[in-house]
Amino acid sequence: MTITSSKLWTRDFILFTISNTFLFSGFHIFLPTLPLYVLDQGGNSTDVGLLSAIFVFFAILVRFFTDYGIHKWGQKYYLYIGCILCFVAAISYILATSVPRLLSLRVLHGLGFGIATTLYATIITDLIPKSRRGEGIGYFGLGTTLAMAIAPGLGVWIVDNFSFNSLFMVATCSQILALGCLSLCSIPDDRSVHTKPQEKSSILDKLVEKSLSYQAFLSLLFGICIGGILNFIALLAKEVHIANSGAFFLICTACIFLSRLVTGRIFDKKGPAWVILPGAILFLLGFVVLAQSKTITSFLIASALYGFGYGTIFPAVQTWMFNLVPPAKRSAASATFYNMIDIGNGVGSVALGMLAGKLGYASIYWCSAIIMGIFLLSYIWFVIQEKQDYEEGEIIDTKCQ
After folding, report:
1. Tally of helices (H runs) and strands (E runs) in the chain
2. Which of 153, 188, 223 finishes a domain?
3. Domain range enclosing 220
4. What is the pLDDT of residues 81-134, one digit of tens each?
5. Residue 386: how many CB atoms within 10 A of its CB?
6. Residues 6+ away with beta carbon under 8 Å from 299
7. Which of 7, 130, 259, 397 is deepest in the core (most CB within 10 A)?
């Protein structure tokens, strides 16, 4: 579908954004609570680790077949399949009275979430005018930010005051609302723009779209750094005796929200470099401050720097990837982006956890700062090379004339 109007806030855009918010709410509500449920069912720390690993593995695995799914069912109905799987998993957690059953449902939930996140990110580009894509994707991501800010705390509150079954019912209602909003959207069933998937392709080809190899590399580095924050920030706070570590996520979420209100417009007017470069610098500084934090003040300054950096880089790299491919490759671009983020998150969590076991939790953030330094230097080199290629092209064009 081609958008000719420059109007962003259409009925479909708003409903689609709300639907995505409810889907992510049903995911984030389980992040702090399912580990508690595993322990409540007699599981151990290994089972808690498997809970996340199985989910991520199958979310990545199903993205290998994104093009096949769109070709067979069309992106509209393939998205419905993903959302329905998430709904079935959420309501079935009530029946998961043992750890093996719970882990098997994480397979189903991972498959559904992998399909849905890829298709939401793909379809939203059809609902946004190209001239406002950076701005639109930034606003679209605000729903995910709100889900990340509200759902985890809500989940813990429900478990503390009611029961796990109540938690599962609230998560199920969230998935129902996601489906309800989705059903009110006019989504093109445009499988015609997707060519038939190639019969023979390597695993790497399915994991990463070839034309986006460099952007995938940046996404992988970014994902590793995200893993350090999500999994170890509370443990760092405990190690350096900082109380109220939850305030980190509160400040961080507020800064992500604010950054997305501004940086999308800059992306559309100036291009990715004007957003990614300052975002990477802020992100790097956040890790440097965090690695040295001994007080709540420095801890929250690091939180703000991290939030502004994250809120800037995430939608910018994602939009950049969409802009580099034709419509038929957008699903592959979306799958590539989320695959690299998830792999980086998983690998980073394991590697950084091993590092923390030997050198302490502060070492995680020194390492993350080094990784972001590589990200920043690599991107600066890319921008310089791109500028040189552009100038050489202009010289050649002038000579030809």
Report:
1. 14, 0
2. 188
3. 207-395
4. 999 999 999 999 999 888 889 989 999 999 999 999 999 988 988 888 888 888
5. 11
6. 237, 242, 245, 247, 248, 290, 293
7. 259
